[in-house]
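Page header: ASSEMBLY MODEL / two components / 526 residues total.
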Amino acid sequence: MDQNLKKDSLELLTKESERYRLERLGFFRDIREEAELLASSFPPKEDETFAQWKSRGLREYYRHKGFSAFCRKNIDNPDFETLVRTLINTYIQKAFNSSPRTETDRFLAPDLDTVSYAMPPSLFQELYTIYFSAMPSFGNTSELDRFCGNIAGERFPLDEARIIGSLQENDSFYWEKFYTKLRPIADAFSYQMSGLSGNDSTHDLWSDTCISVNRAVVERRLKEPVDARAVISYSVGTIKNKNKELLRNRAKAPVDVDSLQYKLTIEEEEKYFNNPVTKPENFPSQIPSLHNYIDYTDKDSIQGYFIVILYNKEHPLHDELVKGYEDKIERMFEHYIDGLSYEEIVARHSGVTGDRETAKECARLRQETKRLKKNLLDRFHKMMEKYR
Amino acid sequence: MNRHIDIDILSRYLLNRLTQDEETAVQEHLRHCPECAGRLEAMRKLRNVFFEDTESQDRKSVIFRIVRSRWTKVAAAVIIVAGIGLFTAETVRNRSNILEQHEIVNGDNPDNEVFAVDTFDKKDSTYYRKKYGDDFKF
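Prediction written out in full:
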């Protein structure tokens, strides 16, 4: 059999397995055997381009392997559910990146984040029950992919009313995003009104505001119909009142309590929303590539992202990840990527001679590599927490 | 495609962040560009080293290596043989004891064969007769 054809088939199926987790789901066990099957049973026809062969070959391969029955059998498999969630999330992310910012996001989501194009676990379960309880027939992975794309297209962006309803039901997923949204706003107002600056100084004011807004919304104290603008207006009003209260306590400036209002003026809106000045430094959303890559709910995505940061020297987070370990990483790459043995690496770098010395150096390098792997993963997890 | 694939595109390919058409274009490039294929392979190797090796193969190394080891098979065989031997020896010894205790001579004779030995003896019978009266019969 043509070696190139085997290589192409292997790459196609490796990608399919990475994207649709076929090996993990148990669709096949040995990817090399499957690649041989694809190459031998469904080879390219004459005058068929690579893209045409890929489309036809994979379609016939999946039919041959009974992909449709496999999906039906795995309807209750948590790994299959995770796959579906990831596929839908990918489409939602794409839609978010290519759509204008919704009004709901403008008022309720942190900068560059979204509530309109987000799928909390409860919503996913609802959608999975609606769309997958009677498992549709998927002839191949492309059909499953398209189906998930259609779900994302039909259901997102979410209605404002639904998001407000979730806030009223005290859904922590939305509240956490909204609290994050409030943080820079609280900082900006506090700085302007009472001269407070820095996270420590404004933390109490911000957390009091969060509690107050949460109670008002959950206890249905806002005037119906409640919308995103009403929630943010109430929040800004609360922040202003707390600042005024702070000033009154300081007795630096008299405050006309009657003039307190819970309305967001156009001037304030322009001044404090989407204003780069109000963005705290190193705010997670300042790293543009973070949200393009990572899906925090998906382990595979997090792991893949780690590899990308580690390997891609141009990535904005690369330096932060590898700082202080540059030489060790180079040796680790030589071992794991270039396939050099520890002896060869020792000979290349340290110039140690003598069997005993070399053996000692190799043992040290082996230990060092093991520790390095752990240290890098630990650092990555800290970075994820920081930029989340 | 003459130029190499941008590392960002290759990263997105690895992370399944490309559209189907973009993915096909990358695959078409990879067929003819060993350098890009090598970079992709390097990222996949690293992923295996960091995650599949640590998660599954470490588990495998502890459990599967023990299970699949030749020494485990030898040990299992020794335990089975020793178990059978011990059971046989114990059975023979018990049988001899029973024959001795009950003074059964010529135990191989079918008439004298011991199927089960009741340990309820005459002393017990006297005890129960005292306790429950003459209705108790032995």
